[in-house]
Write a sequence for this structure.
């Protein structure tokens, strides 16, 4: 099995940051999957209100923000998407990534950080958007818990990866 961990970074930095980046590094460590950072060509504003506004308008217009590069997909059969819940959806740059990959028969595991709303309808939305991919059951972890209870978060991640057959 060859696993790609595709992690969204709002700062556009190659090193994933925040709770999402931490989660992605844990998943990469446990699965041995290679870690790819989805970097928007235009980094998001640092100001929280501006960030909210931009993310919301991108979602409302079903935007596909440009990203800096794409991962090497040779031999990859499973992709773990690691991203924050933004307005009940994936950050739209994740759709830019997925639109440009050949996903036929590839297993896709959505893993999101959030503050309250979990995965919402994301598994269903991904199934509708990418019908040839094999969209699997996802995992939602509160971003604050990734920081405050790393051990507990790791346990939940391990169980999810085991149940999913990724480790
Ligand atoms: C623009 C934006 C929109 C968000 N929308 C939601 C939401 O609809 N539901 C939710 O539970 N959390 C929402 N959040 C909270 C994030 O999903 C959560 O804080 C996440 O852990 C952030 O990850 P990070 O620390 O890697 O940036 C939102 C955060 C941002 C910045």
């Amino acid at each position: 099995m060859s696993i790609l961990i595709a992690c969204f970074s709002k700062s556009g930095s190659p090193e994933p940051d925040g709770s999402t980046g931490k989660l992605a590094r844990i998943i990469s460590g446990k699965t041995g999957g290679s870690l790819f950072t989805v970097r928007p060509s235009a980094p998001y504003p640092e100001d929280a209100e501006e960030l909210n506004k931009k993310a919301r308008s991108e979602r409302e217009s079903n935007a596909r923000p440009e990203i800096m590069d794409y991962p090497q997909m040779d031999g990859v059969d499973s992709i773990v998407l690691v991203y924050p819940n933004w307005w009940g959806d994936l950050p739209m740059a994740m759709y830019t990534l997925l639109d440009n990959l050949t996903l036929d028969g590839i297993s896709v595991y959505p893993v999101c950080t959030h503050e309250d709303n979990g995965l919402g309808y994301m598994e269903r939305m991904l199934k509708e958007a990418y019908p040839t991919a094999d969209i699997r059951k996802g995992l939602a972890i509160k971003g604050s818990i990734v920081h405050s209870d790393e051990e507990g978060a790791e346990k939940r991640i391990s169980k999810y990866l085991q149940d999913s057959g990724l480790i």
